[in-house]
Amino acid sequence: MEIRELAKRSGVPARTIRYYEDIRLMPPAARKPNGYREYTEADVDRLKLVAGARRLDFSLAEIKEILDLRDRQIAPCGVLLEMLEQKALEIQQRINELEELEHHLRRLRQLGLTFPTDDIEGKNCVCHLVSQQERNISEKQLKLKSNQG
Asked: Would you say 63 and 50 are in contact if contact means Cβ atoms under 8 Å apart?
């Protein structure tokens, strides 16, 4: 099958398929006499695995690790299970961080509502509070480092 059929069957755009070949995530396609790429059912299966892993937020390097195991005739299932657990932990950490950010934003907004909203210079209003955030974040990071050291 040609690249447009592979793209249709896998849901991956032809341009992305070419890129995956360039970075060796997909093996180089066989070529027809006219130079067109020619793919097999194995290529469809491989590309579906890549696409599924990408939807699960796996990096290209992580996917390559899985595919390299398969290419060496080693079942990647154990490695993939560990990667799934690690990815779930990373997602939970991101959720926690986003929830903390949400609470911070809501507290900042509540505090900002007590300030005037017509301060053009931004020295005595919510704009001032927002501009102080970088300094507050840097101070928190320094405290964390000093507590760890």
From this structure: yes
